[in-house]
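Review session, final week

We close the course with one last complete record, chosen because it touches almost every idea we covered. It is Amidohydrolase, a protein from Nocardia vermiculata with 297 residues. Go through it on your own first, then we will talk.
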Amino acid sequence: MTVDNDDRAAVARFRHALELPAIVDVHTHFMPDRVLRKVWDYFDSAGPLIGRPWPITYRDDEKQRLDTLREFGVRAFTSLVYPHKPDMAAWLNEWAADFAARTPDCLHTATFYPEHHAASYVHAALESGARIFKSHVQVGDYHPGDPLLTEVWGLLADAGVPVLIHCGSGPAPGTFTGPEPIAELMARFPRLRLIVAHMGVPEYSAFLDIAEQHDTVYLDTTMSFTDFVEERDPFPRSEYPRLADLGDRILFGSDFPNIPYSYAHALQALERLDLGTDWLRAVCHDNAAHLFALEPE
């Protein structure tokens, strides 16, 4: 589909109101086509890790999806790939490196899985310029403290490269989801830069606690505060002051293209929190621009 004119206009109005020249979206998915098709099939089937109907709003080919983000004014984004089994991560990293090389506005993304050669391909990804890693505890069904990942976490902590980690128990709990494994991980690797996906839904308060205890922990807004998520897992209004206090470590993420509503709605959901224009500018651009050392817009 081409971008709906109302969608494009709504995003433009949001940026204009904030005097925001661009958006940085830390949570977008670009994958090998056959992998993405399987992901979409899973969403279409409302599988057990989804648990509800989930239409894909931006079900387009790769070029159109890139054009859409750029039309929205997104200056930097990610290609979050993640394995669900062994001997998959290295291949995904090769694809993601090639994608970043031909897509200059994509932050070079990589991933890993608990397997004996994980440290080797993570080291190779860092050497080739990876700027963010994706970990999916729910889909990968592994404990972040798996001994096979000890060297991986050490490499990433030493490199200062952020890991965007899906570790909350939404939309459906996994064997190893929840805040406890992350608290243990940060106790072992206190310099590790983690971005907790989806604000840690539904364990919002516990992940806010972790972020307050560790100044290298960030949270991304992906799908949070939208009508779709608020219907089942509302973010507690009592925690809004903590959102404001952590305003320099909250990053905008959309989950594009795999969202069941418009891109504009993700931004409007943040706006209606009523935390102020400075907070919105920081979340939608400045925090990520600083974290990833992007050139001034």
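Two points worth writing down before the exam:
The domain at 1-292 is CATH 3.20.20.140 (TIM Barrel).
The longest helix spans residues 277-291.
Good luck, everyone.
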